[in-house]
Amino acid sequence: MPDEMELDFQSALRVAGIAIPEDRYAIMLEAYRSYRAMAAVLDEPTPYEDEPAAALHPARSPSR
Amino acid sequence: MSAPIPSLAEASAAIAAGTLSPVALTEQALARIAALEPRLNAFITLTADRARAAAAAAEAEIREGRRRGPLHGIPYALKDIYDVAGIRTTAHSRLLLDNVAQADSDATERLEAAGMVLLGKLATHEFARGGVNDDLPFPRAKNPWNPACFAGGSSSGSGAAVASGMVALAMGSDTGGSIRIPAAFCGVVGLKPTYGRLSRRGVVPLSFGLDHTGPLTRTVEDCALAMQALAGFDPRDPGSADQPVEDYTARLREGVRDLRIGHARGYAVEAAVGAEQMAAMDAAAEVLARLGAEVVEVPLPALRRFEAACWTILHAESFAVHQQDLRTRPDLYGRTLRERLTLGAFVTGPHYVQAQRLRRRLTQEVDALFAGLDAILCAPAHGPAPLAAEADDNPWRRQQPITAAFNVTGHPALCLPAGFAANGMPLSLQVVGRSFEEAMVLRIGHAFEQATEWHTLRPPEAQA
């Protein structure tokens, strides 16, 4: 019976349209669990005003 | 066998003095490639005819008193993700076997304008992200210090070509350490400049927000010479920075007296860096202290924060680049790259944004350290190059590259030789600087290099 994280894994692959060969399923699931553990840092609270690094820096538009 | 070709500085001085001709230098490089290439696999595409024609043209120009600058008439090579008009860019992948570039990359334009002579395109990990031992259309580049060892990646051919004396300048790219790790494992110099310092136009992308281009050379002085030709604003690269270009050689020899240099020893301990690499870092700190720098231990932000930011951004952006091909023709990818790219399917929108917010915060925290420092020493790898057969080609690596911290913050980082492990493989020192202050990083690296002999030693595979 898949646990919740495995169901998430299957769902993400389905949404992305990616198929994984059967013989690589277990190792990819393990990779997914490892990534989720690493990304837990990103769930820590962030001040409202912290802007992302990739925020747009608009340049002046070309003149007519 | 043909001798290793001289450094950029040596070749430049000899050409200026009229004691070396670009044609002779190019023939020497081609002969050396012919002798070593069957064992090292550094090149994917050799452009011998083009090189001979360019060398002859350079020689004629110089003879007529029209020498363009210090790099005129000297050979170079490009990682095979840089475009050169009329030559295929494969990214070491079946997907791009017929991909003939329509225009030059910015780096190609600048090096050609400087009068350099293109020798060819170099091996890489597939799309600068794949594995070491996959079944790919070209063989993997081997480490000249021991062909059974990993050359480092992803700029593996660049590291091997420079270390073996085939070429004095090879261009690489660095999204998580792909210039610095091959430089460290092959015992050469590699610079990841500040994000935006060098253009990425005409270079196959991996992760737009983390991709850097930069040079690999035999010496720090050569790296400075290359940077002078390469640096500059490129309005056609959205990530290019419109910042003044420093003079990279003017203060190269000013030494480190009275500089304040941090040593991120705790970061290395946290990353479980091995004893030999730790000892090399400690010895490097002592050398710089003996030369007159004040060296103090400094705490970097926690490794897990850098890793979460880096790998979330990299997975998401590289997946965005490749999603269509992963869906429609996955079999054309090597197994390792296909699986590593697939990790991007697991990144949520909020996590990508959070990673970008964390990235800004980490950059600010490292910048705050620089308020009291001229540079930071940081281990570039966990240890020397492992055996290629033992390289970690899993989708999720047991250890992530510790170099990636400065892809996140964008600060310039230089790797240079700093010793040898018991197995005879090179160890390296990483010097990290303030953003857009590559000249200081190069100055510190040059002082260390001149006080040590590591850069003078040649790999057994490359001895004449």
List the helices and strands and how they pair.
The complex is a heterodimer of chains A (64) and B (464).
Chain A: H1 4-16, H2 25-39
Chain B: H1 8-17, H2 22-40, E1 43-46, H3 48-63, E2 75-79, H4 106-113, E3 117-122, H5 156-163, E4 169-174, H6 180-186, E5 189-192, E6 212-217, H7 220-230, E7 260-263, H8 265-270, H9 275-290, E8 294-297, H10 303-328, H11 335-342, H12 349-370, E9 375-378, H13 405-409, E10 413-420, E11 426-433, H14 438-451
Q: In what order do the strands lie side by side in the largest sheet of chain B?
A: 1-3-2-4-6-5-10-11-9-7-8
Q: How many individual helices of chain A?
A: 2
Largest interface: A-B, 31 and 35 residues
**What's the CATH superfamily of chain B, by name?**
Amidase signature (AS) domain
**Number of helical stretches of at least 4 residues of chain B:** 14
Element-level helix/strand string of chain A? HH
- For this structure, the CATH topology of chain B is Amidase signature (AS) enzymes
**What structural class do you assign from the helix and strand content of chain A?**
mainly alpha
The backbone outline of chain B, from C-alpha atoms, is: globular
Mean pLDDT rating of chain B = 97
- Rg calc of chain A: 19 Å
Strand portion of chain A, in percent? under 5%
Domain Amidase (chain B): 25-442
Protein name (chain B): Amidase
GO molecular function (chain B): catalytic activity
Pfam family, one (chain B): Amidase
Structure characterization notes:
The complex is a heterodimer of chains A (64) and B (464). With 64 residues, chain A is mainly α. Chain A has a domain at 4-42. Helix content of chain A is 44%, strand content 0%. Chain A has helices at residues 4-16, 25-39. By secondary structure, chain B is an alpha/beta fold. Chain B has one domain (8-462): Amidase signature (AS) domain (Amidase signature (AS) enzymes). Chain B has 14 helices and 11 strands. Chain B has an 11-stranded mixed β-sheet, sandwiched between helices. In chain B, strand 2, helix 4 and strand 3 (117-122) form a beta-alpha-beta unit. In chain B, helix 2 runs antiparallel to helix 3 (48-63), helix 5 packs parallel to helix 6 and helix 10 packs antiparallel against helix 12 (349-370). Chain B is globular. The model of chain B has no long low-confidence stretch (mean pLDDT 97). The chains are: A mainly alpha (64), B alpha/beta (464). The interface between A and B is medium-sized, with 31 and 35 residues. Chain B: One of its GO terms (molecular function) is catalytic activity. Chain B: This is Amidase. Chain B: InterPro entries: Amidase, Amidase_CS, Amidase_dom, AS_sf. Chain B: It comes from Roseicella aerolata. Chain B: Residues 25-442 form the Amidase domain.
